[in-house]
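Quick one, T. Sequence first:
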Amino acid sequence: MPAGCAAARSRLAFRSLADWTLGPGLDADCSGSVHEADAAGPLGRCGGRQRVEDQTIQLADGRTVGYADYGAAAATAVLWCHGGPGSRAEPAHLAPQARRAGLRIVGIDRPGYGLSTLQSGRTIAGWVPDAVAVADHLGIGQFVAVGISTGGAYALALAAAVPARVLGVVVCCAMTDMRWPEGRATMSRPHTHAVWDAPDRAAALAAAIDAHGEDGSKLRADGMAAGLAPSDVALFRDPSWTNEATAAFQAMFAQGLEGFTDDRLADGPGWVSFDVTAIRCPVTVLHGRSDRIVNVIHAYHTAELIPGAELLVLDDLGHISITTEVVPAIGNLLREQPDPGKKPRARSSPPVS
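Structure tokens:
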């Protein structure tokens, strides 16, 4: 990984992460937390800023699913499948932009993250009923699915499993099917391979904790520096992004590395629990060529797997900064009609090997 100069340049900015603390009104276990986003909306206001309360539903099997609803009920719904690690609060920084675009983002905690009950042994497709239950609870019929990094597979599983509900998918900075050896080989050994290769779940959890720190502490300070593109570093200098990221960081590690471990155990075997070739809605595969966490070759492979997918690779963006392009990508996608007979359309040159 070409850390070099970029890692050195990011060191100063990343020291601020080591001082992240819980913000006002945010409990240590993340329950009852409040996010504030610029711009007015249908929810309550506080000091001129919109307040978004975290909420939960209980499923028939007794499990709890946590979610955060950012937007108006009449807007086009977007179910946000967060990264790994991640949480329902991950899209908070995009909420004002999304509302201006007529979108309602709903972030959902996967099992073992944030407010959602742990579910060991889960699969990628096995999470689909959780997301649908949240949509049903909110009175959402059709929606766009967005998947970030690890969450890309979960967004695609939604499109494959409930095609009548999914208007389209944006797969952003996402890992591809891990049955593809070339893509699998690019992933971090301590953060992914050590978990995949563990003999049992207990050993996998121990490997995840060793890589991240039980509360994510190893991702603070210089822990992620080598994985950041210069455009990622710039986000950490933006207070509007950093304020929302603080809440998201706490929520993603509210249950330690339990959720992350189960994410890795679910994607290690590859996309075996759903059929990606069955997807018929519009799909945009969005990636930054400067991504140092999930190599851009993942995007090219995913676009080849999905009928009619559009591939959009942006040269200067990295794993985190590419998320700033999600809202425009959703807008473009909603203006398109599905054409399963088309081959992937690329708006960039192929990766240079």
